[in-house]
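User: Reviewer 2 asked us to show a designed sequence for the structure in our supplementary figure. I'm pasting the structure tokens here. Could you produce the per-position amino acids so we can include them in the response letter?
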């Protein structure tokens, strides 16, 4: 299975490098937030209660890393649906490759791509803006983003194999991701001081909120923060469930 996983991983990475357009498009939105929304936060963070510790860039940059992993992982199923339509998936079914490896290779490729995009966001923030982050915290935040990309791409691939519709899949993902993104506090933290009670309670139910909190704690190097432990545990549970669902779906569809 490890050899099959490597083969699928190398194949998907070669395809991504041959046509890096989607990688560049995926990084454009976070960069626009950095340049057009970040300066507004600079004058808000220091004078508004309810923001996490750190400056504007230490609050916004890790949230944008989560956003990048969220969108790149969640829409990974679009590529799988294209391969399904042109017959690539059927050809894989005729090989002796491990069915689980077909999933693992793809999600690892998505994790690498999301990590590369996250590194670019961090480099731009370091070079252009006044970002202050610990090296260890940066590495941990990139690891969290990679696991999030694995989680979401696993679920995305499984959902794509269930729907098998290139029209329905993006519409469903947009309908699900928009409330999750708004409630996660990516742009503005949904804290007790800023949000009404009902909105704050909804945000705490959203698992992505805890991942964003963990990412911010890791980014600023606060390894003892309760939010880091809670968010990491939530993310690991999500990853296990998503991989189990994806593996089961791939084995069933490729039986």
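Assistant: Here is a per-position design you can include in the supplement:
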């Amino acid at each position: 299975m490890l050899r099959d996983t490597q083969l699928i991983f190398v194949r998907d990475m070669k395809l991504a490098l041959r046509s890096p357009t989607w990688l560049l498009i995926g990084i454009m939105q976070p960069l626009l937030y950095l340049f057009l929304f970040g300066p507004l936060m600079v004058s808000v963070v220091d004078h508004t209660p309810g923001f996490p510790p750190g400056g504007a860039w230490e609050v916004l940059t890790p949230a944008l890393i989560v956003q990048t992993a969220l969108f790149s992982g969640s829409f990974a199923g679009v590529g799988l649906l294209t391969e399904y339509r042109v017959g690539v998936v059927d050809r894989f079914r005729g090989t002796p490759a491990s069915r689980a490896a077909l999933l693992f290779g793809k999600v690892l490729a998505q994790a690498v791509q999301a990590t590369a995009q996250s590194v670019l966001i961090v480099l731009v923030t370091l070079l252009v803006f006044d970002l202050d982050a610990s090296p260890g915290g940066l590495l941990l935040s990139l690891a969290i983003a990679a696991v999030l990309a694995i989680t979401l791409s696993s679920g995305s691939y499984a959902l794509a194999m269930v729907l098998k519709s290139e029209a329905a899949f993006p519409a469903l993902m947009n309908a699900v991701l928009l409330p999750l993104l708004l409630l996660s506090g990516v742009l503005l933290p949904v804290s007790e001081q800023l949000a009404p009670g009902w909105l704050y309670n909804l945000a705490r139910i959203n698992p992505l909120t805890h991942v964003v909190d963990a990412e911010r704690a890791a980014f600023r190097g606060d390894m003892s923060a309760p939010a880091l432990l809670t968010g990491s545990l939530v993310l690991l549970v999500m990853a296990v469930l998503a991989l189990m669902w994806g593996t089961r779906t791939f084995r069933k569809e490729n039986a």
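For the response letter, you might also mention the following. The CA atoms of residues 111 and 147 lie 7 Å apart. The longest helix spans residues 99-128.
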